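Quick illustration for those who missed Monday's session on complexes.
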Amino acid sequence: MEFQDLLCQRRSIYSIEAELPISCQRLTELIRTSLCQCPSAFNSQSGRIMLLIGTEHRKLWQMILDMVAPLTPASQLSKTQDKISSYAAGFGTILFFNDSQVTRELQDRFPLYKDNFSVWAEHSQGMLQFIVWSSLAENGIGASLQHYNPLIDTQLKQEFAIPDSWQLSAQMPFGKIVDKADPKTFIPVAERFKFSGCEQ
Ligand SMILES: Cc1cc2nc3c(=O)[nH]c(=O)nc-3n(C[C@H](O)[C@H](O)[C@H](O)COP(=O)(O)O)c2cc1C
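Prediction with flavin mononucleotide bound:
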């Protein structure tokens, strides 16, 4: 697939089920390559991933439901339950983290850039999420990006033995695509893009 076509194919897919068009081994290869090839400031490689599939994936979403439900107004509860069930219906979830230890070490080594390192770690994290999301899309796998952090951080670390320095950034439930995404709307690109100096 052409890269520009892949950009259009990657969408937030919410209607997913617990199957995959590729093997688990291929899935883990995609994630390993994404982790290795993702750009990062000073090649610091601060992004971390935990992949949960099957029962572990369902345990995650049950844990999230148990934490979110008591905080949800009664009028919203059934909508929230449906949303969380739709993520649980997928094949797995990719958990994205930044390793704060990496940022701390860089801050000590390069005091001149001290204030930049956490920002750059977030930039790299966004790239990592995009690379993984696009790699899934290229292989016909639907995914969306969710943020139940920081609410779930402490319990997640306990339940899934996550190292202390890993800071949760996002949760990406994925699976076989049941329904495609609705067409996307765009604000006029002319409002977002200026250019000068090149031939037309
Ligand atoms: C930083 C960031 C945070 C997002 N957070 C959420 C989220 O919490 N829940 C969600 O359903 N989608 C989330 N999204 C997905 C966006 O809503 C989605 O990318 C956008 O509406 C464009 O749709 P598309 O992904 O189909 O192109 C997030 C996307 C980004 C880049």
